[in-house]
Amino acid sequence: MFIEQAYRGKHDFWLYLVGSLIVALAATIGQIPLTIAIFLDRGLDVVGMSQTELMQSLDPNLLIFLLLLSFAVGFIGLKLAVKYLHQISLMKITTTRKKIDWGRILLGFGLIAVFSSVSILIDYQSNPENYVWNYKPMPFLILCLIAIVMVPIQTSLEEYIFRGYLMQGFGMGTRHEYFSIGLIATLLISLILFGANYLYDLDFGENALIALVSLIIFVGIHMFLQARKVYDKSSYIKFNNSFQFKFTPLIITSLIFGLLHLANPEVGKLGYTILFFYIGTGLFLGIITLMDEGMELALGFHAGNNLVGIILVTANWTAFQSESLLKDVAEPSIGFDVFLPLLIVYPIFYIIMAKMYKWNNWKEKLFGKIKAPLETRTPN
Predict the structure, then answer these.
(1) Band of the pLDDT at 228, cuts 50, 70, 90?
(2) Distance (Å, rounded) from C-alpha 328 to C-alpha 318?
(3) Where does the CAAX prenyl protease 2/Lysostaphin resistance protein A-like domain lie (predicted)?
(4) What global pTM score does this model have?
């Protein structure tokens, strides 16, 4: 079972929190070359510049390379965390199979690459006024070389973090005595911060203060209720046990994956509705990982999606700017079409994958209880 692979190494939940910090620190270090490049180009003018202005200050190919470089450094951080914190091989958070199935990676890649390419072609033929032909031989060749090497690194790191490392990590976390309380506190604090930022433009210090005060209040209420015996120990244990199922890490990682896209310029242009697509895509990738007992399909799918997007078409309001073949110059808008992949395309992909790999026992694989393998049921 995929989540239970974590039992084969050190799997205390706090280790996953430390490991996540290591990956974040490594990725931040990987951003130093980009920061230096922007500073050398703009000097002190960078102060007060918007994110969009900063991203447009460099050559598109150089920008793409430096942006993706941070993911490569982040990958080093992940490998160090897995090896030294958890004392487990990277293979154990990749798949339950003895080796990586490259056929599955190619299938995931092919499904979304073909679908995306055909969709772009149809839209280009139907609405040519929405696109500008942007082909420049040498910049495009350089883009292809960068994208083919670096984009799979970027998408693989995201998959390893969300569908591998954190999927298993939150799975182990559900076994912790205070997991349910911690989860509820995190959700409430996140809602408070989201609401505060929606009403007021808060800086980092103000957000940190609100989070700290909210946490203190929540812990205080929890301790007060415990002291007054509003709920007994057995009821709390029963409530906590209700989280010890595979859908818990599936939902949590999908939400985090989707909400991290809040920083993308697409959200500013299209509104929060686009988050349904991001969260739904995270859920899709998580489901195919659990059903297939490995990340290969998700690895291929994510790489195919991003690679086609960067090479074929970009817009000046998307997260990645590139020397793509086409530039989308239409005024961005969003409607029911954001739900079409979630309601039609992804279910078709489920059917294809399920038929090819003979998936069964959906209820157990997606909603079953997380249990330690028999051979590892010893105190951690």
Answers:
(1) low
(2) 10
(3) 141-216, 247-308
(4) 0.89
